């Protein structure tokens, strides 16, 4: 069947535009996937945080975490004394104890205190029997350093 004007478009002209759009869509899909960490990086667990960890912050608080790790998931308890005296910190009589949940990805332990009304969370880099990083709570951001001082008494998370 002849096209209007007596000429039929060449097959390459008909399909050329469609193929171009397909190639562009494929390239965008592939490049979009490169912007995100791959599934191996997101799920790789190279650190074990199971145990009892003690340490302090730059605001004068002392911490003890009792943690049990299962795969990338972590549960346990946080006990804190001091550090509730505002921006300058201090060893005040503030005492806090509450449940903690978190994950380990690579050598980074991310956690949050799960008590009702708590806003405490943190991100610590694990290096063997030491971990350090930042923790934020109602008093601001603190730098904390913890050292593993022992294994937990059992493989189940401590009860509040």
Topology of this structure?
Blueprint: H1 11-34, H2 39-43, E1 51-57, E2 62-70, E3 73-81, E4 95-105, E5 108-113, E6 121-127, E7 130-137, E8 140-150
Antiparallel strand pairs: 1-2, 1-8, 2-3, 3-4, 4-5, 5-6, 6-7, 7-8
Description:
This protein has 160 residues and is an alpha+beta fold. It has a domain at 51-150: Lipocalin. Helix content is 18%, strand content 42%. It has two helices and eight strands; from the N terminus they run ααββββββββ. The chain has helices spanning 11-34, 39-43, and strands spanning 51-57, 62-70, 73-81, 95-105, 108-113, 121-127, 130-137, 140-150. An eight-stranded antiparallel barrel has the order 1-2-3-4-5-6-7-8. It starts with 10 loop residues before the first helix and ends in a 10-residue tail after the last strand. Residues 85-91 have low confidence and may be disordered.
Helix content: 10-25%
Q: Which radius of gyration do the C-alpha atoms yield?
A: 27 Å
**CATH fold name of the domain at 51-150:** Lipocalin
**In what range is the share of β-strand residues?**
35-45%
Keywords:
18% helix; 8-stranded antiparallel barrel; Lipocalin; alpha+beta; 160 residues
Short synopsis of the structure:
The chain is an alpha+beta fold.
